[in-house]
Fold this sequence. Notes:
Layout: H1 4-18, H2 36-50, E1 54-57, E2 63-67, E3 76-82, H3 95-108, E4 116-122, H4 135-140, H5 146-149, H6 159-165, E5 182-190, H7 195-199, E6 203-209, E7 211-220, E8 224-225, H8 237-253, E9 259-261, E10 265-268, E11 274-275, E12 278-287, H9 290-311, E13 314-323, E14 326-327, H10 330-342, E15 349-352, H11 358-361, E16 367-372, H12 388-408
The structure holds (2S)-amino(hydroxy)ethanoic acid and manganese (II) ion (2 copies).
The site of one manganese (II) ion has 6 residues, from loops.
Amino acid sequence: MDRFPVVAREVIARCQSLAECTEESGFTTRPFLSEPMREVHTRLRDWMEQAGMTASIDAVGNVRGCYAARQPSAPRLFIGSHLDTVPRAGAYDGILGVVLGVALADLLNGRRLKFHIEVVGFSEEEGLRFGVPFIGSRTFIGDIDDELLGRRDAKGMTVTDAIRAFGLDPSRIGDAQAGNDALAYFEFHIEQGPVLEALGLPLGVVEGIAGQSRFSVVFEGQANHAGTTPMHLRRDALVGAAEWIGAVEKEARSTSGLVATVGRLEVEPGAGNVIPGVVRTTLDVRHADDAIRTAAIQRLHHHAGDIAARRGLSVSWKHLLDQASVTMDASFSRLLEHAVDASGYTVHRMTSGAGHDAMIVARRMPAVMLFLRSPGGISHHSRETVLPEDVEAALVTGMRFLEAMEARHD
Ligand code: HGY
Ligand code: MN
Ligand code: MN
C-alpha cells in the first residue's frame, strides 16, 4: 500500500499541531528557547522515538534525532531546518523540514542504511529574540562566540542566561558541534515566494541562497512640543527616517534583483503631541550577487547621512548580520535532481531569496536544499500553507535521494 499520501497528511497535521506551540495565542510566535519550545521538543522527541530514532536536546536547544546506520562507524547524513518562527508566522517555515526528516526515518520502517541519518531541529534561525539569526546552526558548525553569547534580548537576558533559564548547560555548547563523520546536509523548506506556483511545479532544487545584510539604524533629533515648535525649528527624527525609508524603496526598485526592507520602526517618546526625538529602524538588504548588495548598502548609508545632515539629525548604524551568498553543493544537487526526475517530477533549479540554515551548515559540509511550492507565494504570515500532493512529492523524492545516497556508498 502506498504510504506516501497518508504520511504526507500526517506531516501536515504535525506541522499544524506544532503551530499551536506559541507565545501569542491565536498566532504562531515561537522565539528561541521560549516556553512553547518545550512542547515542540517533547512532541518531536516522541515522534523521533516512534520512528526508531534516539532523540536528544543539545546545549542551545537544537533537537537531535539519530536513525542509526547498519554500522556504528558509518558516516552521517544530516536532514534539518529550524524550530523557531517570526512573529505571527505560518505553520511550515522551518518546522516542515524537521518533520519531513522524521517522516523519512519512519518510512524506512526499521531498514538500516550505510549511513546514519541525523535529523536536526535548529533552535534559532530567524533572529527574533536576540536580533541575530542562526544561533542553532552556528553552534552546530562551531561558530559561536562571546559576542553572540553576550547579546541581550528585550528583557536584558543574554543568550547564555536564556540557555540556563531553559534548563540547558552553556558549558556543553562545544558538544553540539557536528562531528567529522558528516556526509552532507539536506534541507527541505517551503519556497516562501511565488516562483514554483507561477510555474505550476511542486518542487524546486535550490542552486544558491542570496546573501543578506541586516542593520539597526537609529535617527536622533530633538523631541519637543507639537503645538509650540514652528516647523522650521524642528529636528524631527521620524520625518527624517520616513524620507530615508522612501529612499530605501527607491534604491531597491531601481536595482535589478535587489530587495531591501525596513521591518521595524520604534518611535520615541511615541506620544501624539510630541515631536519624535529618536526613531529606531532595521534594514534588511539581499541580493544573489554580494558586490551588488554591498554597493547598494553603501548608497543607502550615504542617503541616510545626507538626510540627517540636511535635517539636523544624527544617524547611527549597527551591523547585525553580514551573510555572503552561498552556492549549494553541485554533486549532491545533481543527485537530488535525479531523485526529483526519477520520482516523476519536473526538475527546476532556483535561487533562494530567503536565508536558511543550509547557508551556515554549507561552511562545514556539502549542503543541498529542496523547495516545496508556496501556494499564494505567501510566507512569514498565518496564510502560509503547503499542498498535500507537494508534501507527498517531497517525501517520494526524499526517499529516492536516500536510495541514491545508499547506492553511492557501494
Ligand atoms: O529571513 C529569512 O530569510 C528567513 O526566513 N530566516
Ligand atoms: Mn523564516
Ligand atoms: Mn525558514
